[in-house]
Amino acid sequence: MLRINHSFLNYIQERYDEQDRKDNIIVKHYSKGQRLLSQHENATKLFFIQDGIAKCFFTEENDKVYILEFSGRGEIVGEIELIKQIPCLCTVEAVTDVTVYAVTPDYFVQLLKQDVVLNHYLLDVFAGRIVNTASRASYQQLYTIEHSLKKLLELRSKQDVMLSKDDIASYLGVSTRSLNRVLKAENLSL
Amino acid sequence: MLRINHSFLNYIQERYDEQDRKDNIIVKHYSKGQRLLSQHENATKLFFIQDGIAKCFFTEENDKVYILEFSGRGEIVGEIELIKQIPCLCTVEAVTDVTVYAVTPDYFVQLLKQDVVLNHYLLDVFAGRIVNTASRASYQQLYTIEHSLKKLLELRSKQDVMLSKDDIASYLGVSTRSLNRVLKAENLSL
DNA sequence: ACTAAAAAAGGACATTTGTCCTGATGGCAC
DNA sequence: GTGCCATCAGGACAAATGTCCTTTTTTAGT
Question: Fewer CB within a 10 Å sphere, N or C end of chain A?
């Protein structure tokens, strides 16, 4: 649920330190609630999260929200859109205050071309995401909320993110009312 | 839904042709219904589909089935497991008779290390899958069957796979009964 | 400490989906 | 043709989830 990636963070920190004019990678801050990327808009940068937590979510045409993942230290966002040359798939919003390395697309493409290490990091990250996303899609589709919720709570107990109840409901892809109902029935709390 | 990838197919064909002892890549055939990979088991090969269609699906502990995707010409299966070093995430089963290039993990890892072109193909394929899987997860979670079904039928009309009703239900992650109900209500047929 | 605003809880009812069965339909061996 | 098996459609009911609102609790500001 909260994805964290340390090798990635080191990698981008090194690239940051070694740059001459300091304009390929800059450090930026976002306060809680601010958006790093907006669904359907074109991204002008891609981001490595240096600190804080962001959530990536879809807003469907019926205004319902599905949270795809929470991204923590070392996670990258916006790279899929760059590689596929498409507008932003999700909105990415700071859940806590967030500090990022903001990278220009051109520089990132250049790195991709010349640096096999980056390629391998990315492949590993992508593979992990596919495993997670696909497993979760299957699980949430084939089980009732009760099961998904238990799984989510297990995950959450290992990390400690404090999420609003709305966020949890959106992560499960259900209404808050249904989430409350299940919590009550199971005698659980958050 | 049916994923097809031509550059990948050309790439692996070239590797196949150029090999000396012809043991890193071999051509194999699977008849309709046979399994290329089995969920939870370790894969000994990874596959490029040269012809035919395979379905990748999860079987959850409650015996329900979720079809993740249908893979066609040029699609690769088993590479995620290799990269993450995990047992098979899904079962992969031939929906039609299928011909594949079966590649040894060692050789594939070697290619990954030395060939940046392969890396870029893979990144592109992975990015596409993430887009698809994530969009579908969101869509199926936040809309009723009716909407997902319409989307599926649009997709299907552009390609022509003939799928059993059970497969369609599993792709939508719902019961056959519910699928029938919606088909009737919408006056649709397959 | 008091109030306004926000977040959370939950009642009542509607809709969607699942489960379990039964009855129809269509091959196919004999 | 007859009977058997497999597949499919759908009825009846149950369970899960959503919608719409109202009430309760928390939080933040002054």
Answer: C
Cα B10 from chain centroid? 18
Low-confidence ranges of chain A (pLDDT < 50): none
CA angle, A159 then A163 then A165, to 5°: 135
Is B134 within 8 Å of A136 when comparing Cβ atoms?
Answer: no
- pLDDT tens string B125-143: 999 999 999 999 999 999 9
- Does the CB of B175 fall within 7 Å of any strand C atom? yes
Disruptive mutation site among A3, A62, A135, A141 for chain B (greatest number of B CBs within 10 Å) = A141
Give the mean model confidence (pLDDT) for residues B41-62.
92
pLDDT of residue B160: 62
- Coil, strand, or helix at residue B121? helix
Which nucleotides of chain C have an atom under 7 angstroms from any protein CB? 7-12, 16-21
Given an 8 Å threshold on Cβ–Cβ distance, is B58 in contact with A113? no
What predicted TM-score, i.e. pTM, was given to this entire model? 0.92
Instruction: Provide the shortest C-alpha distance from residue B99 to chain A (in Å).
Output: 25
